[in-house]
Amino acid sequence: MQYSCTWVRTIALLGVLLAAPLCAIAASSTQNDPIQQQDPKGLLSLDEALSLTLNHNAELKALTFEISARRARALQQGFLPNPEFSAFVEGVGEEIETNVELSQKIGLADKRKKRRTVAEFEMKAAEWDFEIKQREILSDARIAFYNLLAAQQRLSLLEEQLGIEEEILQTVQAKAEAGKVSPIEAIKARTALSSSRIARDRALRELAAARMSLASQWGNSSPGFKRATGSLSLSLTQLPSFSKLQEAALKGPGMRQWTSELLQRDAELDLEEALRVPDLTLNAGMKKNNETKESSFMLGFSIPLQIFHRNQGAIMESRQRMNQSRQLRRNAEITLKTSLFNAYQDLSAAAEEVESLENEVLPSAEQAFDAEQEGYLAGKFSYLQLLDTKRTLFELKQQHIEALTSFQRALTEVERLSAAPLAAVMGQTPSIEENK
Question: Which domains does the chain have, with CATH numbers?
Answer without folding.
Answer: 48-435 (1.20.1600.10)
